[in-house]
Amino acid sequence: MPENRFFLEDAFEKGLTVYLKGDELRHLRVMRREIGETIELVNGKNQLGHALLTHLDKETATLTLSNVIDAPPPERQLILAQALLKPKNLDLVIEKGTELGATAFWLFPGQKSEKKGLSPTQIQRCRHLTISALKQCGRLDLPDIRIMPLLADWEEFPPGNRFFGDRHSEESFRPPKGNTILFVGPEKGFSSEEKKLLSHHTQGVRIHSYVLRAETAALCFLALANFP
Hints:
- The protein contains five helices and eleven strands; from the N terminus they run ββαββββαβαβββαβα.
- By secondary structure, the protein is an alpha/beta fold.
- The chain has two domains: 5-70, CATH 2.40.240.20; 78-225, SPOUT methyltransferase, trefoil knot domain (Alpha/beta knot).
- A six-stranded parallel sheet has the order 8-7-6-10-9-11. Strands 1-3-4-5-2 form a five-stranded mixed sheet.
- Helix 2 links the parallel strand 6 (78-83) and strand 7 (104-108).
- Helix 2 runs parallel beside helix 3 (120-137) and helix 2 (87-99) runs parallel beside helix 5 (214-225).
- The longest helix is centred in the middle third of the chain and has 18 residues, at 120-137.
- The protein is elongated and about 60 Å long.
- The mean pLDDT is 95.
């Protein structure tokens, strides 16, 4: 785990004074950081900042950025289009999917999904999980979370390589280069109507010889896609 890494949405600039509050301040206290120490800040915008902790009270930590590293953005987009899962399964996919390099999560209600939508609190939890995983795994870009409609209501499918998991397919998944979107169904799988729609717009591929749970399939898909 990257040492002393904390999240702040602000754009970074050397010499800038910034402030940590809320969850990040609590994290700072748990880690027992002290005035005079240098910590690492990330903003999810491909920047890494080194900041000196200059003041600490009950509500705010004050830091001064001593150095800022600008990293290039990801070379390609790797989007996971995930049908809504049970909360604990979706949490796993969001957290581990961030660690595996997903640049965006497009969450949509599958026809067989038990949940047909996410509350603002649940969406915020998904975002919190991406931030936590971002800090843990060392990446500098924060995945986007987009709430999508039923597949039948998509106005268009994005350009690039498009695949959906189909255990009956004779074609094994061969990770391509370039922007890629991966479609994964809910716990009960895609409906026949969804499979027909996806077959018109994407390629059905087999990602494993065994039958995988939805959350396992999503993470396996992402792991394989990292090695085109």
